[in-house]
Design brief:
This protein is mainly β. The chain contains 6 helices and 58 strands. The strands form 18 sheets. Strands 45, 48, 50, 52, 53 and 54 form a 6-stranded mixed sheet that branches. Strands 4-12-11-7-9 form a 5-stranded mixed sheet. Strands 14-22-21-17-19 form a 5-stranded mixed sheet. Strand 38 and strand 39 form a beta hairpin. Keywords: Glycoprotein, Repeat, Signal. It comes from Rangifer tarandus platyrhynchus (Svalbard reindeer).
Length: 672
C-alpha cells in the first residue's frame, strides 16, 4: 500500500482452490506404436478418475480402423479377447489392455470411447441413490512409426530392344520398381548391376563413364544409356534396394536391325460430318532406335482420305509427329459423305519407314443420346505420384441401364503420365495393366484405376474418354489433371537501393506463382547472404537475419540495408521452405543495384615540389600531382587554383590552357 511518501511492506496472499470431488480427471496422452506391433495402454496414457475414487466402465463406440484392442487374460477367462468393445479401470491398472497395429502402411489411427461411472469403489458400501452419474466422451489417437519392412516390387519388366551395335536410353518405360512402404520415395531406389554379356551401361551425358549403380531418378531423367556390343540376346542381373531390403531382377536385352512396328491401330469411329481426334490410344508405334524426343517419329500422309481431311492444329501440313498425337493435335474431319473412309501414312524414324493405313467408320447420330455424366472433376495429384479415380470424380449413368454397364474408352492418353489398372488377386499382391485402353464404371468405383504422374516440372495434364452405355455414347469427355509441384515455385524480383540506404522488401519480390501454394506461410532462408549489406527486421534494427517468414514480408518488416561501401552491385540467394508441407523451392538469387552517392571528398595523394628550368617545358605526372576520390566515378575533375602568373599549364598542345584536369588524364596524357 502506498500513501503519499509512505509505503507499507510487501504482503503475500495465498489462494487455495478446492477441487470438486466428483470432477472427472482425464489422462489422454495418445499412443506411439511401431508398424505391425502392439502397445500396452497404461494409466499414464489413458485413464479416467475422480477424487472420490469412483470406478469407470469404458465402452468403445468406434473401433480402430488399422488395428484392434485386446485384453490379456488367463486362458480360462470367458469372453472374446480380440476386438473388445468394453473394458474397465482394472483392465488398465492391471496392464491387460493392448492396442495392436495391423501392419498396414498407415501413420495414424484412433478409437472413440464413452466412459461412465459404475459406482463408488468400495465393496459392500451403501450406494447413495442421489449420487450423480458421470460420463464423458474420449477420442484416443495413435501415432504409427512406420518401418522400412517391404521389399521393392517390379512395376515394369519387359524385353529391352536395341539396334545392333547401337545405343538406347534405359527409361522407366523399360524398367521400373515400386517400394510399398508409403513413406519411401521411389526415386531413391538404387539399382546395382552385375556383368553385362552384350554391352555396357554408361552415362548419357558422358558415354565414356561406365555405370555400375544408378538411381530410379536417373531412369526418370534419362541419364542411363545402354551401348551394345556382342551377342544379340543376353540377360544381366540387377539388384534393386531401398537401402535396407534387396530384390533381384533379370533385364533381358534383345538386339536386332533397326525397326519400327505398329503397337495398335484401332481406326476411327466418327459421327457423320463430325470431328474425331487421332491419338496414341488409336495409333501408336514402337522402335528400337535411340529416340530421345517424340518429334523424331514422324507420320507423313501419302494418300489423303476421300470423304474428309486430316488436320494438325487446324491446318493440313501433310505430316505430324508422335508429339502431335499425344497432345491431341491431329483431327480427322468428316465432310458428311460416305459410310467409311481411309487414309495411308508412312511412319519414318531416322533411316527406316513403315506404311500404315487408318480406317474410318462413319456412325449414325441416333446413338448419341441419354448417357449422362454425373461427375467429371479435375484430378489433383502430387508430382511423381499416383491418384485414384473414384465415383466422386467420374461417374456415368444412363436412364435405361444400370451404371455397371458404362464403359470408358481411352481416346487420348495423358501426356505427362499414364493410366494404370490395378486388379487384386487372392493370395498375391495383385496385377497391374499399364496404359489400359478401356475400363468400366465398377473399375472406377472399386478404386482400380489410377493416374500416375511421371514427367517433372509440369502443371497440368489431361486425357480424353469416350463413354458408352449399351448403344448410347458421350464422346470426348476431357479429364483434367492438376499437378501439385514437388518443389515450391519461387519467383523473385531484383531491386535498386541508394548507397548507404535501405529498402523494404515487399511480397511482390517473393512470389509463389501456383494456386496450390497461395497463402502458404513459408519461411525464406538465406543460402548466400549479401556481401555489401544485410537483411534486417525493422523491429530489431542492425540484427542480421538468415531467415524470415512470409508474414513478416506481408507486414513490411523485412528490409535490405546497404553498408555504404562503393560497390555498385550486390546479391543474395534464398530458398522457400515449408515445414508444414515438407517442401522447399530451388535457390533463387536477387540482384541489388546500388545508386552511388557522391559523399566522399577528394584526397591529395601526391603533391611534390616541381623543379623546372627557366623557360623550359616540364612534364607533370601522377608522381608529382595526384588525387583520389572514394566515390570512384570515372573522370572526376577538379579546378586548378592559384596558378603563378609566370607559369602556364596545358595538355598535349601548348596552345590549350587547362582549367581542370583528371587523374586518369595525368596518367594517360602529358600535362606540361
Amino acid at each position: 500500500m502506498v500513501a503519499k511518501h509512505i509505503e507499507s511492506k510487501d504482503y503475500t496472499f495465498r489462494i487455495n482452490f478446492k477441487a470438486e470431488r466428483r470432477h472427472i480427471i482425464l489422462t489422454n496422452r495418445g499412443l506411439l506404436v511401431k508398424e505391425g506391433e502392439g502397445k500396452l495402454i497404461t494409466k499414464s496414457e489413458l485413464f479416467v478418475q475422480t477424487l472420490d475414487k469412483r470406478t469407470f466402465q469404458y465402452t468403445v463406440t468406434k473401433s480402430p480402423q488399422h488395428g484392434k484392442l485386446k485384453l490379456i487374460r488367463s486362458s480360462d477367462s470367458p469372453g472374446n479377447q480380440d476386438n473388445i468393445t468394453a473394458f474397465t479401470d482394472q483392465d488398465i491398472l492391471g496392464e491387460q489392455l493392448i492396442y495392436e497395429h495391423d501392419d498396414s502402411e498407415t501413420q495414424s489411427d484412433e478409437f472413440l470411447l464413452v466412459v461412465s461411472t459404475a459406482g463408488p469403489d468400495q465393496e459392500g458400501a451403501f450406494r447413495d441413490l442421489d449420487t450423480e452419474h458421470l460420463s464423458a466422451e474420449i477420442k484416443a489417437t495413435i501415432s504409427v512409426e512406420l518401418k522400412n519392412d517391404k521389399k521393392p516390387v517390379c512395376v515394369v519388366d519387359k524385353v529391352f530392344q536395341v539396334v545392333r551395335n547401337g545405343q538406347h536410353l534405359l527409361t522407366l518405360s523399360d524398367l521400373c520398381y515400386h517400394d510399398p512402404d508409403s513413406d519411401f520415395d521411389d526415386g531413391q531406389l538404387l539399382y546395382i548391376r552385375w556383368g553385362i554379356p552384350n554391352g555396357d551401361l554408361v552415362q548419357a551425358s558422358d558415354p565414356t563413364q561406365k555405370l555400375y549403380r544408378f538411381g530410379q531418378e536417373d531412369l526418370w531423367e534419362g541419364r542411363v544409356l545402354f551401348r551394345h556390343r556382342g551377342a544379340d540376346l543376353a540377360r544381366f542381373v540387377l539388384f534393386v534396394t531401398d537401402g535396407v531390403h534387396y530384390t533381384s531382377s533379370l533385364l533381358e536385352v534383345s538386339v536386332s536391325d533397326p525397326y519400327v512396328r505398329v503397337v495398335n491401330n484401332t481406326g476411327l469411329l466418327i459421327q457423320r460430318g463430325k470431328d474425331s481426334s487421332l491419338t496414341t490410344a488409336k495409333l501408336s508405334v514402337t522402335t528400337n532406335h535411340d529416340v530421345r524426343t517424340d518429334h523424331e517419329v514422324q507420320f507423313h500422309i501419302v494418300q489423303p482420305p476421300n470423304h474428309g481431311s486430316v488436320l494438325v492444329n487446324s491446318s493440313a501440313p501433310g505430316s505430324f509427329s508422335v508429339h502431335d498425337l499425344k497432345q491431341g493435335h491431329v483431327i480427322y474431319r468428316h465432310d458428311g459423305s460416305g459410310s467409311f473412309d481411309m487414309f495411308n501414312l508412312i511412319v519414318r524414324v531416322k533411316d527406316i519407314h513403315l506404311y500404315v493405313g487408318v480406317y474410318v467408320q462413319v456412325d449414325s447420330e441416333s446413338h448419341q443420346h441419354h448417357t449422362q455424366i454425373l461427375h467429371s472433376k479435375t484430378l489433383v495429384v502430387e508430382e511423381g505420384k499416383p491418384v485414384k479415380l473414384s465415383r466422386e470424380r467420374l461417374q456415368a449413368v444412363h436412364e435405361d441401364l444400370v451404371p455397371s454397364e458404362a464403359v470408358f474408352i481411352v481416346r487420348a492418353l495423358p501426356v505427362h503420365g499414364y493410366l494404370r489398372r490395378s486388379l487384386p488377386e487372392e493370395g498375391s499382391v495383385g496385377t497391374e495393366d499399364t496404359f489400359p485402353l478401356m475400363f468400366t464404371q465398377p473399375d472406377v468405383d472399386d478404386g482400380y484405376i489410377h493416374y500416375v504422374q511421371t514427367m517433372p516440372d509440369q502443371q497440368q495434364d489431361r486425357f480424353i474418354l469416350d463413354v458408352r452405355s449399351g448403344f448410347q455414347a458421350v464422346s470426348r469427355l476431357e479429364i483434367l489433371v492438376d499437378v501439385v509441384p514437388k518443389q515450391i515455385p519461387l519467383a523473385v524480383q531484383n531491386f535498386t537501393v541508394q548507397e548507404g540506404g535501405s529498402k523494404a522488401l515487399p511480397e511482390d519480390y517473393f512470389r509463389t506463382p501456383s494456386k496450390h501454394f497461395e497463402g502458404l506461410d513459408c519461411e525464406f532462408v538465406l543460402l548466400k547472404p549479401p556481401k555489401h549489406g544485410y537483411i534486417e527486421n525493422s523491429h530489431f534494427p542492425r540484427v542480421k537475419l538468415m531467415k524470415f517468414t512470409r508474414k513478416q514480408v506481408e507486414n513490411e518488416l523485412i528490409s535490405y540495408v546497404h553498408d555504404g561501401s562503393e560497390e555498385l552491385l550486390d546479391s543474395f540467394t534464398i530458398f522457400a521452405n515449408s515445414s508444414e508441407l515438407g517442401k522447399q523451392s530451388l535457390p533463387q538469387t536477387l540482384f541489388v543495384t546500388i545508386e552511388s552517392v557522391n559523399d566522399e571528398s577528394p584526397v591529395i595523394t601526391a603533391n611534390k615540389i616541381l623543379q623546372v628550368w627557366v623557360n623550359s617545358v616540364t612534364e607533370i605526372t601522377c608522381d608529382e600531382l595526384c588525387a583520389v576520390d572514394g566515390d570512384s566515378p570515372a573522370h572526376r575533375t577538379w579546378p586548378t587554383w592559384c596558378l603563378h602568373p609566370a607559369m602556364d599549364i596545358w595538355l598535349s598542345s601548348p596552345f590549350l590552357d587547362v582549367a581542370s584536369r583528371t587523374s586518369p588524364r595525368l596518367r594517360s596524357t602529358r600535362a606540361s
